[in-house]
Specification:
Number of domains: 3
Number of strands: 10
CATH class of the largest domain: Alpha Beta
Shape: elongated
Strand content: 15-25%
Strand order of the largest sheet: 2-1-3-10-4
CATH topology of the largest domain: D-Maltodextrin-Binding Protein, domain 2
Largest sheet: 5 strands, mixed
CATH architecture of the largest domain: 3-Layer(aba) Sandwich
Helix content: 40-55%
CATH superfamily of the largest domain: Periplasmic binding protein-like II
Oligomer: single chain
Number of helices: 9
Amino acid sequence: MSANTIWSRTEGVYSLTVTILARLSGCLLVAASVNLGACAQVDARGVEAKKTTITVSAAASLAVAYKELGKQFEQMNPAVKIRFNFASSSSLVNQIQSGAPSDVLAAADLTSFYRLRAKRAVVGLPKVFAHNAMQLIVKPGNPLGITSITDLNKAKTVSLCAKTVPCGIYARQLLSRSSVMIAESKITRGVDATASLNAVANGDADAGIVYATDALSAKKRVRVIAIPGATNIKAAYGIGVIRASKHGVVAERFVAFVLSSQGKRILSSYGFQAP
């Protein structure tokens, strides 16, 4: 066998080897790309999973304003997610006392915090972050000509909050100050301020007493009749961290944001008064 013949065979083997290696390299590159893609997806999910979620239990009357507060807080803190639980303040206290997970409580009164402090369920004293007032609302067009609290006896049905929730307690104080008594048979009671407003907006009641902020958010669904300041109620809203919170540092950060100048501006834009 000549040298040229031997070299030719070697060259063929070399070419075949290079070709096989090239194809194998291509397969390895494809496999590596697939694996890197999978890793990227896992990593993205991992980053998402690393977000700290805190639950903010807030009075129903805070729903619209707090959703905006939460949105802006999340933008400033990308690693944090806010989960809201809106209900009457008394219901929220009952939930927390029953062990429902919560990191922050924002209530439409301060009494709710005293109930929790008695059980050592809240950290420190509540911080007042806003004030609210009460307003008289009637059906659009005001068909019964109601112009003040004393005219509520003209109504066949009056919408008030439940007796044990803050807006119901404030309404009772307001009626007492105005020396107005309404038969319980003429009253329909909502579980919270939102439900009480909807009763009038939906035509189930002729008039009602709700928070000024709720009346403002209702826009044309109801007609608002202002209650004089001398007679009105100044409702103090408090906020605090729940002792059982597993994310106390983040919860404190959210409380600080609500109390900040930016937080106050947001609350003011929804009709809440400065503390």
